[in-house]
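It is worth pausing here to work through a concrete case rather than discussing structure prediction in the abstract. The textbook approach is simple: state the sequence, then state the predicted structure, then interpret. We follow exactly that order.
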Amino acid sequence: MRLFAGEQIMPTPPHIRLGFAVRIVGRPGLGAGGPAHLSLALVRLGDVLGYLEHIGVQFYRIRPDLITPQTLDQLEECSLQLDLLAARLAHTGIRLTSHMDHGVALGCTDMAQATASLAAIEATAALLERLDAHRPAGSIEGTLVVHVGASPTDPAGLDRFATRFMMLSARARARLAVEHESAGFSLGQLLILHQHCGVPVVFDMLHWELFNPEAIPLSLALGLALATWPVAIRPEVHLSSPRSEAHLVPAQAHQPGRVLPPRPGQHADFIEAAALQRLLVAARVLPAFDLMLEAKAGDLALLRLRHDMAARWL
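Step two, the predicted structure:
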């Protein structure tokens, strides 16, 4: 079976779509730019799709500010663009997902922030639905990921999340998933949250390595997270390597340069092939999933990892 789209045949791992998040380092300026009218943002997205097709990547995380509650009314203005992009996505098999900013917090105590979070999720879900319009009936590719958005010392945060999750439209609930954290709510806690409200859980290998108070083995942890996803939606899994090098802060006016150590859980520029290999070994008898690489080098990290893994399997 093929390990990655566009790669040589590998002996055992399942086919997965390997993806990267937002940043395109290999083509400076491609997809760049802050919030804009949706029509311009979609033009930029079309350029990104062309690059993804060129390098054989079928999984990509869009900018979280591609659409906002304030620009939601622009969906209808951009109907033709959205229809063309949806047809292109269905033809190429490229999956687009989103990871909302940490400010999107369904578990927070602040009602104004919670209301804004609900609106942001609804807007992104509406966009992803339009981009899935040419998929087979009932097919969902575009999912969006959030964190609980509450302090782990506040157990009521999970209850608030569950309550607000149920306040979302059916469209938004069908596309929303929650991710466990390296210094917050654990995988075990989110598995209980899933039992309470049905939200799928994104497995993050680095977060599991850094914070696994339930001592769940890797294969079991991955399998439990995958089992929270509906049969019709392929689960999303995250992989990153911890940053180990120091960070230089250049000198500024009246302040000398500084060398800062890496923060716990900070993502590295690239992904260690050994980490992917451990994950694939753990996944041998588990359902298929798509793998999002969370590396600062973006597309270059993905291309390097594909090369490294191909060399390992030769």
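Step three, interpretation. The first helix runs from residue 38 to 55. Residues 4-13 have pLDDT under 50 and may be disordered.
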